[in-house]
Amino acid sequence: MNGKTYASRMPFTVNMVFSYGDDGKNCRDIAALWRIDGMDKDDPTVIARRLLQGPLDLSKLTFKQMEINAQVARFPSDLENMENRKFAGQAIYWMRIFAVRGGKFQPAKLENTPDVQAILKDPAKQKQLLEYLSGHMAEIDTGVFNLPESLEADVALSFSTAGSSRVANRPFDLLVDREQAGKIVTAAGIPAKSLKFVQSGAGLLERLNTSSCMGCHQSSSTAGFHFLGVDRFDFGSGADAIKSALDGNKLQLPFSPHVYAELARRKDYVERVSSGQAPNMFRPHPSAPAAVWENGGPTYAPAGDNMPCPLNADLANSAKWSCSSTRNLSCQAVVTNASASSYLGQCLPGAQNIYAGLSCRSNVIDDSTAKSDAKEPLSFNLRSFNDRVSKDELIYKMPEGKLSGYDYNCRPTRIGVPLGRITRPCKPDESKLAAIQPGSIPDEICAIVGGKGFEQMAKGYFDSAVFAAGVGRGLLNVCTPSRFCREDYICQEMPELLTGAKFNVSTQTLNILKSRKIGFCTPTYFVYQLRLDGHPNPR
After folding, report:
1. Could you give the C-alpha distances from 21 to 24, 62, 116, 302, 454, in angstroms and in order?
2. Quick one: which of 124, 330, 373, 508 has the most CB atoms within 10 Å?
3. Using CA atoms, how far apart are residues 208 and 112, in angstroms rounded to an integer?
4. Is this prediction's pTM over 0.90?
5. pLDDT grade, residue 452 (50/70/90)?
6. Is it the case that residue 307 has pLDDT exceeding 70?
7. Which is it for strands 329-332 and 345-349: parallel, antiparallel or unpaired?
8. How far apart are CA 1 and CA 3, in angstroms?
9. Peptide bond before 76: cis, by omega within 30 degrees of 0?
10. How many H helices and E strands in the chain?
11. Alpha-carbon span 340 to 365, nearest angstrom
């Protein structure tokens, strides 16, 4: 455009699903295809060739379905403030599955995602749902149930911010109340010590809700996505021009905390199947940390700073996890919603151990979805953007106005930072990233925090030179492939613009960050490939 190259990605993912035929050995031979052994197992070229000749050989696969997840609307923080909803921005995500029938793509039902409107207006469907839940408690508890298709929807909408605590993403809360759910658990007649996940009516609803599309996609996700993919530059007029145009708008991690935990579970599952052993069928809570699956597991890793944690006794011990004791963290409720059957807390340090990037505000949600009559034409939660934050309070006693010196400050949600964000100006040595050395990972890093350059990008002008000239710096928290950002935040790559004369960060230091995949946490919608608005107009 006008002689300059602009580039951005859109918040839209397509997942193509294929199935294997029966190998007659309970999938043992098929699972073995995924094993990559030998001296060259760490060589990407060898791995790619082995996968394409083995488990990803399309001649051995049958196409099953196409799964689409797309952000279809976004409300920036300024609009939230004007409408007095007080979320630090919101977005709506549209999820559908299409399968080939009669030579055409046709909508397919969404696994374990109830058609709320159809069930509420049909007593026969309500009876069918309750009978199914009562008769399949063991499968539901393990996490391997399949709701009857006659009860399922073929479209789902999910909502962020604070998505894990909102009824918009908890469809079963509108169909079964906690008392009714408790009676279902009791009537099932399964001894409490035999249950692996459910310990109460709220626990049953937590399993059901997090097994729905919207519930899973708002649990330890990156906004409404779980696998965004590695940033790439081999498109357009030239890789160098594209890479330069995307500087300051790139992800450090391509996947969510849930994917990280799932990879450990699935690896154990496939290895057991490939050796003829019975796999562990239990599915953890989607917000649980990664686990070790030996000796009947899972044995969960401790949850880190600001990560989700269970607050009460609704979950069985085998489904619970704890906050890291070595980090002196405790599980505290930071987003509460009286209309939800349950919600998770966050692992927070004490006031004496705070650092940049942590949550510093607590929210109470006034939930509009729970009060609606569910007569919307598209989905029960179509107007859930009308939820509001009814109370917003400081977690730690600290300033929240103008930044002063090098004191910590709680930046308010109204500027687009969910649950606030602790930060402070960078000291001169911090600006040069002098603390970044091989072998150590600090809690804090002098990252980019917006400024005039960022505001220019918000208008659709992805000019990296203008962005670099007007970008601000501030102290934020780090993230790595095993250290994740909290809900509604994303791990962003440190931009190369920092090596310019204005900031004077050495190329060597920046290369250390990249080689170790160390990024910084920033609100999800501060990264343009996670927002629908503000992109350059293609011409």
Report:
1. 9, 8, 34, 39, 50
2. 330
3. 8
4. yes
5. confident
6. yes
7. antiparallel
8. 5
9. no
10. 15, 19
11. 10
Per-residue pLDDT band at 454 (split at 50, 70, 90): confident
How many whole angstroms separate alpha carbon 216 and alpha carbon 310? 16
Residues 6 or more apart whose Cβ sits within 8 Å of residue 379 = 116, 117, 153, 155, 156, 157
Strand order across the 471-479 sheet: 444-451, 471-479, 519-523, 489-492
Q: Could you tell me which residues come within 8 angstroms of residue 511 by beta carbon, excluding any fewer than 6 positions away?
A: none
Taking Cα atoms as reference points, which of 88, 76, 8 lies closest to residue 460? 8
H or E element, residue 430: helix 428-431
Residue tagged 């035929």 (tokens): 21
Dihedral angle computed from the Cα positions of residues 44, 50, 54 and 56, in that order, rounded to the nearest 10 degrees = 30
Contacts of 313 (CB under 8 A, 6+ apart): 199, 200
Tell me how crowded residue 503 is: count the other CB atoms within 10 A of its CB.
18
User: In angstroms, how far apart are the furthest CA atoms of the chain?
Assistant: 71
Nearest to 74 by CA among 154, 156, 165, 10: 10
Q: 48 vs 103, 452, 481, CA distance in Å? A: 31, 43, 21
Count of other CB atoms within 10 angstroms of residue 393: 10
- By the 8 A CB rule, do 314 and 203 touch? yes
H helix runs in 212-256, sequence order: 213-217, 239-245
Residue 325's CB is within 10 A of a number of other CB atoms, namely 9
Long-range residue pairs from 119-123, CB within 8 A, at least 24 positions apart, any chain: 119/151, 119/175, 120/174, 120/175, 120/374
CB atoms within 10 A of CB 271: 16
Please state the three-class secondary structure of 115-136 as a single string.
CHHHHHCCHHHHHHHHHHHHHC
Which segments of 233-343 are extended strands (E)?
A: 291-292, 299-300, 308-309, 329-332, 335-336
Structure-block tokens of residue 402: 């103008």
CA distance 442 to 119: 51
- The enclosing H or E element of 470 equals helix 464-470
CB 298 within 8 A of CB 318: yes
Contacts of 535 (CB under 8 A, 6+ apart): 8, 10, 460, 462, 528
Give backbone dihedrals phi and psi of 311, rounded to 5 degrees, phi first: -95, -20
Residue 55 C-alpha from the chain's centroid: 27
Q: Are 422 and 398 in contact (CB under 8 A)?
A: yes
Q: Which two tokens stand for residue 489?
A: 């935040």
Using a 10 angstrom Cβ sphere, with 0-12 exposed, 13-18 middle and 19 or more buried, the burial of residue 52 is exposed
Predicted local confidence at residue 39, as pLDDT: 63
CB-CB neighbours of 60 under 10 Å: 13
Beta partners for residue 299, in sequence order: 292
Condensed to tens digits (0 to 9), the pLDDT of residues 175-214 reads 999 999 999 999 999 998 899 999 999 999 999 999 999 9
State how far the Cα of 446 lies from the Cα of 454, in Å rounded to an integer: 17
Q: What angle do CA 101, 102, 108 make, to 5 degrees?
A: 20
Token pair 């607590």 is found at 362
